[in-house]
Amino acid sequence: MSDRGRGGPRGRGRGEGGGPPPQRGRGIGGPAPRGRGAHLLGTPAQGGPGIPSNHVTAVGVKRSAFGTAGRAIQVITNHFEVKIPQGLIYHYDAITPDKLPARANMELLVRLQEVLEPGIFTPRGVYDGRKNLFSIRRYPFENDTRTFDVTLGNTPAQDSPGNAQKPKKGPKGYKVKLTKVAEINPELLSQFTLGNQSHAEEILTTITALNIVVRMEPTIRYPFNVRSFFTKDERQDIGGGLELWRGYFQSVRPAIGKMVINLDISTGVMYRAGPLIELCLQFLGKDKAAVLSPTQGFPERERLRLQRFVSGLRITSPFGPQAGRPRGIRKLTAAGASALSFTPRDGPATTVARFFQQTYNRQVRYPNIVCAELASGAIIPLEFCDVVEGQIMRKQFPQEKTDAMVKFSTKKPADRLNSIMKGLGVLSYGQSEYIRAFGLDVATQNPLVVNARVLDPPRMLYRGPQASVMPRDGAWNMIQKKFYQPSSVKGWVVVIYEPRFNDQAAQSMVQGLVQTCGETGVVFQDQQPPIIRQNGQGNIGDQLKQAGTALYRNKGYPPDLIVAVLPQGSADIYQAIKHFGDVTQGVATQCLSSQKCSRANQQYYANVALKINVKLGGINTVPDPRSVSILTDPSNPTIVMGADEIHPAPGPGSDTKPSFTAVVASVDSDSAKYIADCQVQTGRRQMIDDLKGMTKALLGKYMGYRKNVEKKANNRPKRLLFFRDGVSEGQFQQVLDLELPLIKEACVELEVDPKITIIVVGKRHHVRFFPRSGADADRSTNCRAGTVVDRDITSPLENDFFLQSHAGIIGTSRPAHYNVLYDENNFTPDGLQSLSFALCHVYARSTRSVSIPAPVYYADIVCSRAKNHYQPGTNLDLSDTGTVDNATERLQQYKDNFKPLHQKMQQLMYFS
């Protein structure tokens, strides 16, 4: 379940554009300049660009002001201004053959416009490869509709095994129907950017049209994937038959006062071009073709794995129907060319190998290895197939290649900005006939410089002589400090699953862990725990239970903590341990890497201590109440919640796999201690089905903690802050229509009435910030932690902002995008931005601020660990290879086998 399936990249359309030029010499909190044409339509905006007119409506909360807190700076961003076209744009429905890929549809429309009917399609329209075609000309169709006959290719069919009995046919013809459905006036979009026009379907359609205009040229020339295209100018072979290609992302977005293009670099995973037989061997990690022979031991399991990898792959061959043209692989045969028999139209039965010898005078060098069966039914030996260059691998990316992907994709800010500027040359906006025809003018000389502020971090509280610390550049240390609320360990056991981790290493590990935890305040009453060695091939649950039972017999009490030392590549052992501790027995578990323990230093054990303390009920650190009064106001008890969901990875059988949802909530007065709930639901459903029940359960635990642990007289929340991850901008309305009522119903049933604020946190976008000077950069040359932008590249209507809350380590940091959908608390921009920044500092596993608020981060972790709720060995395939015919029955199996957390774990941060 690695692919998050978010319903598309976040923040497209209205929330991620650019803004008016920065006003030099003006403080960020000062009055904004008046926008051009502010009185052209409707009520004038109250306060200038970015403060929408009273009469307009928005999906989320309308912006009423800008933030003023922090140190005012300016940053460079990867946006370029675009001039909005003046004339009408005509929108046509393009009905093409069902089930053709976008690439083939694009080929049809290009051929129609450039070869078959150039007189009609001058100037040429732009097409998205699916349904929409836009033109600046109204085509001379009778009743505004016309159907065209379009053929692709001109090579007559030839005989080939598998289809030799079929009659010969010429190039395949297709029907393409175009129908005018609307006329678009871009002036509405102009008014939208000025805050004088409500968000409407016409606005979305216009933005879609402009995006298709700028993508048309590169889509024709390069391999593409939705909003990115890729060139072979910069690529890297990562093995396994795969290459990484440098690509460019581009998206036209509305901003305050204008339209902009958001341009960024991206990475495409491509199949390596060349002989198909070499690709197959690279995938399997072999070098001899004989390994592909079923008669010489090629396992069926491996054949099916290879088949999944190459299915859908386009190849060319000098033989067979449409020789030389790309054709798709449907599957791999179970036998070799010398063993596969068929009967040609005019002749006796023969084998594939003999057919190629007799028909094409080509001897098959590897007659015993599997062959490729094409979509047409033709069978061609692998050695006669060549992989077409520039094919994007759209299946699940191999986990073992992740490091190579990260290394290739990661660039320091200056290098990334240089690559983006290089992309402008590849795009050649000024030379695109489509951009010129539509009248778009892209200002490519310099990226936009926008107004920003650097927020002050919250002071963090600990225990000890120096009880507080002020983070600097998103980080701080715990020298001479103890945890704010340290826990204690009465009994514990160590279980070692790595046989090479010797007794000396084990004793060193115990000593280092006990000593470092003691310095943080976590006390191990027994400093010489039992050390037990086990075989990872055994029943992990039984082994851990035996270890706990042995401790109980010897000491008279069960373990509070089980520490397990694991070898590399031990995901199955890890899952079994977490299932035992979190679900079955309700005991804290901490897994350690044997490799890291062998060369561990104090810093490593300090990081482990951060996890152990909160798993046992402690609190590591809290923000100083004076830094975040919104969260700690005793007269307004506040519960902070985070929600996320994870979807099945694309691939065979993915439609029968479920999605997992998670909601976490704070229980303490400092919004630092969290609990979680996780559920399973229908796959790829974007809204959380059981949000009412999950919210109700978490609210109950919040009130119980305040009453029973904190001894608060007022245990009912007056504020509920709900941070939602995992939804795209197109789903904002669904959050308001479907999820908000469930939260409110949960509150009603518990007889609480908090004021609710809902904020969507997006991180899958391509907005980046680059410091203008060294003074505004941290040690990684990124913008400093706390850099916030709520002007210039934000929504013309809605209350949104970008916050880069973490310090850069490698590459270019990505800010989180916050969209305020609902706000009964009427928070000020400064209030929302400061509390969001503060929540990025309470992530228990580090002494650094993180990129998104801790409750959102926790919800993400809980989702990714949903598989731990299943009993190890359960016959449920959570990988990308499982299939089942009955999706409903399969979902019910997942639900029935999903085990709830142990009651003890429901009160603890087991997920840390």
TrEMBL record:
Signal peptide stretch: none
Residues in coiled coil: none
Residues annotated as domain PAZ: 275-389
Domain Piwi: 561-871
Ranges of compositional bias, category Polar residues: 152-163
CDD domains: PAZ_argonaute_like, Piwi_ago-like
Name of protein: Argonaute-like protein
Species in which this protein is naturally found: Cerrena zonata
